[in-house]
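Form 7-S
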Amino acid sequence: MLAKRLISIGVTVIRVTLILIAVISAPFLYNFQKFFLDRKMEKLCAQDAGVKVYERVTLPASRFGARGELLPVIAPEKSKNLSELLFGNEYLISYSRQTIKAGDPFDRHFSEGRIIKYTEMITRTSDKKILAEYIWYSRTGGEFIPWGRPSSTNCPSPPEGILSRTFIKGD
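Output:
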């Protein structure tokens, strides 16, 4: 009888210990997803992230401000988007978004990570030629978050400017 009681107590202690270990280590083990997503994003960034300029365009100096920024050619209240504001119908700035790894990073405590690829392209409308493209990646979530918001990271970091590399100030 005493032996059965001691065995029962021993089994209970082992069960409670295993449960405590699982509860305490789960948040730390869950953060491994963030680690693997960051490695995947770094690999993708090394392949194709950044600005690629295929053709530089020289614009008149009157199209640039004092700090070198492009000035609007259309009144802001009359333009529908950034392309129209800066270039009228001469050039088109387009954006696309592709989900590489889907997930809900804002899901309560165990944030499921996601990776998104963003592409920004500048196209000359007269001949549909792509002048430049900028590709960047973003990872959000993939960790245990008892409070607050999930972490995020982008690459390349800091973000690069596609406009200043494509359009050059002329005379």
